[in-house]
Predict the 3D structure of the following.
Amino acid sequence: GENVEQHPSTLSVQEGDSAVIKCTYSDSASNYFPWYKQELGKRPQLIIDIRSNVGEKKDQRIAVTLNKTAKHFSLHITETQPEDSAVYFCAASSDNQFYFGTGTSLTVIP
Amino acid sequence: NAGVTQTPKFQVLKTGQSMTLQCAQDMNHEYMSWYRQDPGMGLRLIHYSVGAGITDQGEVPNGYNVSRSTTEDFPLRLLSAAPSQTSVYFCASSYSTSNNEQFFGPGTRLTVL
């Protein structure tokens, strides 16, 4: 099956700085790569996703890049704000199954 | 729309007991799935369904059963609870296959003593 690795496990940034979270996957058949944000005690919520026929996607302060050859994808958050503090999960979807990374706990320091 | 709902929110079981976690969605989604979330391990897929009458195993299916008799409901059954099944369980649904946004329920926190 698919194996998704996510780094770093924790990340602290100053408010206004950028944050980058990286994921790698193993199954070249994976074709959908979403990112979820989970606040403490809450359910995961989709923040951005990318499909395998696209290299980059942006939504305001959030962007995702995908390198299919290297099998890695990254989440970029610019101009971070305290409300960006949460756990972020990457995932890869293949053959009707989702495989999640182990999460990155992001802290934005005011 | 209520979205994806789960009951109960919290549950404590003794080893060997059985129970059913309920999940329902009112978005007419074909794809539904169950995950467990453990500290440091992300979310792991237990079982999934691509439509009524069709279920399949995910990454960690042992000790769990599912059924999908209607599009709306996807219950998860713990056959004989074990302490290793202490976890937070999330149900999710999406339109069509898994290659679409997954909408998660609020979760069920299960403790097995």
